[in-house]
Design a protein that fits this description.
The chain is built from 7 helices and 6 strands. By secondary structure, the protein is of the alpha/beta class. The protein is globular and about 45 Å long. The strands form 2 sheets. The chain has a 4-stranded mixed sheet with strand order 3-2-1-4, sandwiched between helices. A two-stranded parallel ribbon has the order 5-6. Helices cover 40% and strands 19% of the residues. The structure holds a DNA duplex.
Length: 188
DNA sequence: CCTCAGTAGTGCC
DNA sequence: GGCACTACTGAGG
């Protein structure tokens, strides 16, 4: 029976939970409150004992909060997400998207195989929010498509990353001037 | 703006 | 087997 350590904190995007095993960061989850975060992380790790606190989890949490608030996700933390080989390829491809930039589902599909929809499903299965930057994967028409933790968070993270990144191309105006296809939702 | 077909995995009758 | 539902895309009206 494996044990996962976790720590929870508050960010401008809501409550966040960071779970670590001895090898590194296993999960970064957003949620409305501590109970729903615990339900989420336990549901993703059914046969795992969860232990609150510990130096590793607390230090990882601090680094994650810093990454969220600054837009700089290069924390140096070791990420050990669980997933299928295909999901890992999609997540790895998302990490090759530079900060401030985006790629489309179709582009990722061309690189790692599969269809755009399968890329979207693999992104949705990503349990390491922000640090594995699936939020940088968007629709071919410039819309953001969806986000496991709410489209408002995806938009906020992308905008923050564009603030710290050197101005690259017309992507910024494309993303901010086009009408987005998902309605605003309260953070709750 | 809208719908629809193609796409492929998953889940529910 | 049919139908619905995806973090999709491209064509057509």
């Amino acid at each position: 029976l494996q044990t996962l350590s976790f720590a929870m904190g508050t960010t401008s995007l809501g409550r966040v939970l960071v779970a670590t095993c001895e090898n590194g960061v296993r999960a970064v989850l957003f949620g409305s409150d501590e109970k729903s975060l615990l339900v989420d992380v336990q549901g993703r790790n059914p046969r795992t004992r969860l232990a609150r606190g510990g130096d590793m989890a607390e230090q990882a949490l601090a680094a994650v909060v810093r990454a969220i608030e600054t837009g700089d996700i290069d924390t140096g933390l070791v990420l050990v997400p669980r997933g299928t080989d295909y999901q890992r390829r999609v997540w790895k491809a998302s990490r090759e998207i530079p900060v401030g930039a985006t790629a489309t589902y179709k582009e990722i599909a061309a690189k790692v195989g599969g269809t755009a929809q399968e890329v979207g499903e693999a992104c949705a299965a990503n349990a390491v929010a922000v640090l594995i930057p699936c939020h940088r994967v968007v629709r071919s028409d410039g819309g953001l498509a969806g986000y496991r933790w709410g489209i408002h968070r995806k938009r906020a993270i992308i905008e923050r990353e564009q603030e710290i990144a050197p101005p690259a191309d017309s992507l910024f105006s494309r993303l901010t001037t086009k009408k987005q296809n998902a309605p605003e939702q309260p953070f709750h």
